[in-house]
Each structure stands twice: as structure tokens, then as C-alpha cells.
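From the methods appendix. Each design record in this collection lists the discretized structure first, followed by the designed amino acid sequence. Records were kept in a plain field format so they could be parsed without special tools. The example shown here is representative of the layout used throughout.

RECORD:
C-ALPHA CELLS (331 positions):
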């Protein structure tokens, strides 16, 4: 703890020690008055220099802190204690430390993101290149394999298109460029769109697709982005289900509408639940790549719903299925 009294005591002790040293040297050199005068002058100048340097640095720190805080915090030299000064320095130091940790975290996330994007881009590009080279080497004339290879190229091209689309969406969201156009509309419009878009794909897998009749329910939100939420959640249910059913349910709860999407798929282990909304995180990497998943879908869902002041919740058991639910305002 620094204060003026303590500083005065320290300065006095330094001066007394210096004076004692001068007297001892004076006696040792047979009471040479001229040598004593020179020694005292040197010691006094030395003490003055120490005090000047100390006060100069303190005043410099004060000016720097005043510049940072501007009008919010001004030191009063006539009353300000060194304890308060040190406390402010500690606060600023802690702030700089926190900022540095945050910057390191951002840098790490950016590096991981670039590494993941690079990997995700290489996989379909190499596949397309491989199939194309095989076709050019003679497979193009083989009617038994050329159609299959072209279909594989189309699948990988669609995967690339989905990846670019998801990257654009996540970029807009995380750079705060997501501008919602909130309107009140009938939830049935989203339900009908989901049925028309996914019914054929779901039925082709032998899975039942059950949707509600909710013509009386309305929600407030951006219909375009909520379609993206429904699309990602339903696609997720399709990709991880081989039988059973996919059920969309909706019910009114006070001033909100609770919407849930349930599947009878492979489910998610509890250790993965807290991480499935991270970018590029996959519970089953091999299955995800086979189905063309980008690893960004659930992250996009989470951010869009947060922009609607809604939270996504997950209930899941392995080999039983999963339930993704969220609530939207109806006013």
C-alpha cells in the first residue's frame, strides 16, 4: 500500500543511511572536510534523483490513466492517494489481460475454422476430380459405370453448394449482418412448406412423416430464416434415421408457441449434447460425410433462434431418437 507518509519515511531512511555512510567515510579518511562535502553533495543529488524519477513515473501513469478514462476518472493531485492509483493500475492491467485472452481465443477459433473449411472443401473437390479423371480415361464409354460416376459428381457438387451456402449464412450471423424481418404469420405456412419439401425424401426411406394441423397458431419471426431452421432440423432427422417416424408438433403456451421435431433415429450420446451446436462438430463424422452434412447446420439453427430470443433444447437417447424443441413468440 502506497501513501505519502510511507514515502516520506522511506525517503528519510534512505537519507539517514546515506548520511551515516558519509560520516563513516569522513572518519575513515581522517576528517577531510572537503571529501565530506563532496560525498554529501553526491548523496543528496542521488536521493533527489530517486525521488524525482519516482514522482515522474507516477505522474506519467496518472496522465496515461486520465487519457484512458478521459472525463470518467480524474486524479486530484492534492488528495489522491497512491493506493487508489495502484488499484486503478491493477484494474487496467486485468482488463488488458482479459482482452489478450479473448484475442488468443478468437485467433484459435479462426485457425480451427480455416482448417475445417479447408478439409471440407478438399473432400468433394478431390472426389469430383477423381471421378472426372476416371471418366476421361475411358469410363465415359462404359454405360454401366458412367451414369453412376456422373451421379457421384452431382452429389459432391451439391455438397459443395451446401457448404458454400452454410458458410455464407454463418458468416452473416457471426458478423452481426443477420437482419431479421419480423412479421406475424400462420405457423401452418411453415408446416406445409416442410411437408411439400421433405415428404418425398422421407417416404423414400420408408419413414413416416407426421405434421400437425395448426391453422389457428401464429408466430412472430423471419419466415425466411425460420425455414432454414426447419430445413436443418428435418434434414438432420432424415440423415440419422432409417426407420420409424419424423414428427413435427406445435402447441400454444401462454404468449409462445412450442415447436418440436422428433425422430426415431440413432440418437445422441449425452457426452455430445453440449457440443453438437459447435461449428463443424460431428457426433458421427463418417455418417455425416456420407449424407453430405457440412457440420454447420445446428450451429446456424442455434444462432437464428437466439436472434429470435429463443433457445434450442435437445432430448436424446441412443438407439431411441431425439427431440429438438424451441419456443417462438406469438405476439
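DESIGN:
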Amino acid at each position: 500500500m502506497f501513501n505519502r507518509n510511507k514515502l516520506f519515511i522511506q525517503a528519510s531512511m534512505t537519507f539517514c543511511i546515506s548520511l551515516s555512510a558519509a560520516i563513516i567515510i569522513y572518519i575513515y579518511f581522517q576528517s577531510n572536510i572537503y571529501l565530506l562535502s563532496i560525498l554529501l553533495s553526491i548523496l543528496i543529488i542521488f536521493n533527489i534523483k530517486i525521488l524525482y524519477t519516482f514522482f515522474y513515473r507516477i505522474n506519467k501513469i496518472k496522465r496515461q490513466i486520465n487519457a484512458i478514462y478521459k472525463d470518467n476518472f480524474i486524479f486530484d493531485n492534492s488528495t489522491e492517494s497512491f493506493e487508489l492509483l495502484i488499484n486503478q493500475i491493477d484494474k487496467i492491467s486485468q482488463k488488458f489481460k482479459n482482452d489478450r485472452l479473448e484475442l488468443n481465443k478468437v485467433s484459435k477459433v479462426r485457425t480451427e475454422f480455416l482448417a475445417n473449411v479447408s478439409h471440407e472443401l478438399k473432400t468433394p473437390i478431390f472426389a469430383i476430380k477423381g471421378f472426372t479423371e476416371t471418366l476421361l480415361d475411358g469410363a465415359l464409354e462404359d454405360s454401366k459405370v458412367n451414369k453412376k460416376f456422373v451421379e457421384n459428381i452431382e452429389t459432391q457438387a451439391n455438397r459443395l453448394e451446401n457448404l458454400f451456402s452454410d458458410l455464407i449464412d454463418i458468416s452473416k450471423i457471426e458478423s452481426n449482418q443477420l437482419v431479421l424481418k419480423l412479421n406475424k404469420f400462420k405457423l401452418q405456412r411453415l408446416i406445409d412448406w416442410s411437408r411439400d419439401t421433405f415428404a418425398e425424401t422421407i417416404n423414400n426411406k420408408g419413414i413416416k412423416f407426421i405434421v400437425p394441423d395448426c391453422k389457428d397458431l401464429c408466430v412472430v419471426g423471419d419466415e425466411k430464416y425460420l425455414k432454414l431452421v426447419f430445413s436443418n432440423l428435418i434434414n438432420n432427422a432424415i440423415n440419422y434415421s432409417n426407420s420409424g417416424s419424423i414428427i413435427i408438433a406445435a402447441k400454444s403456451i401462454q404468449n409462445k408457441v412450442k415447436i418440436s421435431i422428433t425422430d426415431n433415429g440413432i440418437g445422441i450420446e449425452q457426452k455430445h449434447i453440449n457440443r453438437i451446436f459447435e461449428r463443424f462438430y460431428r457426433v458421427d463424422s463418417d455418417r455425416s460425410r456420407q449424407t453430405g452434412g457440412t457440420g454447420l447446420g445446428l450451429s446456424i439453427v442455434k444462432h437464428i433462434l437466439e436472434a429470435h430470443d429463443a433457445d434450442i433444447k435437445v432430448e436424446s437417447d441412443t438407439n431411441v431418437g431425439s427431440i429438438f424443441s424451441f419456443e417462438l413468440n406469438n405476439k
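APPENDIX NOTE: The beta strands are 183-186, 208-210, 218-221, 245-253, 256-263, 313-317, 321-329.
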